[in-house]
Structures are given as structure tokens and as C-alpha cells.
Inverse folding.
């Protein structure tokens, strides 16, 4: 007997329900992948698996990248499971409702990436505070930071930021960074958008 919640041990009672006429449901399950970002605390992985099981997902595999933390100290986790398309959409909605950061679901990306450059007195204006305030914006998170201070921390420095924004919320994220840069008197170089290479 498994201690795992229903559906997490590889079985699901909801994926292939018989129809009243004795046949099987018209929708057949297919394999789906979700990429999650979890807080590095005990129980977070199990909590993220509950919405999958509770909504009829049949767990196939988990790829847990504990040694590859994101800049926010979170852990990327990839989960493969079987579900009908309708149940897959319900699972993604349930994960987000539970506060699980869904970075990618199937082929649809829930995070758009943009790279920005900041110039100015980044150290003097508290780079840690700048990054924390960007993180506090619900539309974006900082995926990567590269700092260059060739003249030392007392002089002007630059930082390359790779931001991940929720799908469709890139402009909201950029607006928050613009406001922060103005407040701290930093120069912001934004990516070109709408231009084909």
C-alpha cells in the first residue's frame, strides 16, 4: 500500500471513466509536461503533486533539479503525467490557484523572457533592494543577473538582468522596472520589441 495521495502512485481512477452505455469516454488521455518552480522547503513537491492527482492526472515521472536553483533560490521541477486535454487545463489552473509557479505547461509558455541592462550606481543604490523589488512585482521574476563593475563598486557599474514575466504581462513588468530605475536614477536599456532580425 502506498502513502502517496490517490493518483500519485501511478494510478488514476478519473482518466478513463466508463460512459453510461458501457463504452469509454471519447477523450483519450495523452502525456503532458509541466515545469514548476518550487520553494526549497519540505513538503513543497508533494503539495504541488496534489492538484495533479486531485484532477485526474496519472503521474509518469518527476525530474527534480535540486542542485540547479534559480536566482530566487527556488527549485525547477518537471512533471510528466497523463490526462485528457480538459483535465490538463484543470490541473494547470489548480496548480496556479494553489500558488505553484507554473513556468511552462505543455507547449504553452507561462513565462516570457526579456533581457535588460541597468547602468548607474547599482551598488550605492542597493542592488539587492533593486532585485527584491523587481521580485515583489507579481508580473516578473529575476531569472539571472550579471554584474560588471570594472572601476570598482564606488563607480558606475552595469547589470544584465534576464527577467521572466507571466504570459502577456511583459509590459507590466517593464513598467515596474522603469519606475524603479527612475526612482534610483539608473539608466535602463530595454530590449527591442516588434523588430525581426
Amino acid at each position: 500500500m502506498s502513502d502517496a495521495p490517490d493518483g500519485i502512485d501511478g494510478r488514476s481512477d478519473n482518466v478513463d471513466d466508463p460512459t453510461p452505455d458501457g463504452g469509454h469516454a471519447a477523450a483519450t488521455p495523452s502525456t503532458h509536461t509541466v515545469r514548476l518552480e518550487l520553494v526549497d522547503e519540505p513538503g513543497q513537491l508533494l503539495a504541488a503533486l496534489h492538484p495533479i492527482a486531485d484532477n485526474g492526472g496519472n503521474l509518469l515521472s518527476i525530474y527534480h533539479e535540486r542542485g540547479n536553483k534559480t536566482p530566487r533560490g527556488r527549485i525547477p521541477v518537471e512533471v510528466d503525467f497523463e490526462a485528457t486535454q480538459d483535465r490538463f487545463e484543470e490541473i494547470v489552473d489548480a496548480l496556479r490557484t494553489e500558488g505553484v509557479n507554473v513556468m511552462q505547461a505543455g507547449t504553452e509558455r507561462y513565462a516570457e523572457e526579456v533581457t535588460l541592462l541597468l547602468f548607474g550606481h547599482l551598488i550605492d543604490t542597493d542592488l539587492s533592494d533593486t532585485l527584491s523589488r523587481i521580485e515583489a512585482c507579481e508580473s516578473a521574476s529575476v531569472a539571472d543577473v550579471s554584474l560588471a563593475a570594472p572601476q570598482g563598486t564606488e563607480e558606475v557599474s552595469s547589470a544584465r538582468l534576464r527577467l521572466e514575466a507571466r504570459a502577456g504581462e511583459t509590459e507590466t513588468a517593464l513598467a515596474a522596472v522603469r519606475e524603479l530605475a527612475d526612482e534610483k536614477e539608473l539608466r535602463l536599456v530595454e530590449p527591442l520589441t516588434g523588430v525581426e532580425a
Remarks:
- Residues 1-7, 9-25, 193-197 have pLDDT under 50 and may be disordered.
- The beta strands are 30-38, 58-64, 75-83, 101-105, 108-109, 111-120, 140-148, 157-166, 187-189.
- The CA atoms of residues 21 and 104 lie 37 Å apart.
- DSSP finds four helices and nine strands in the chain.
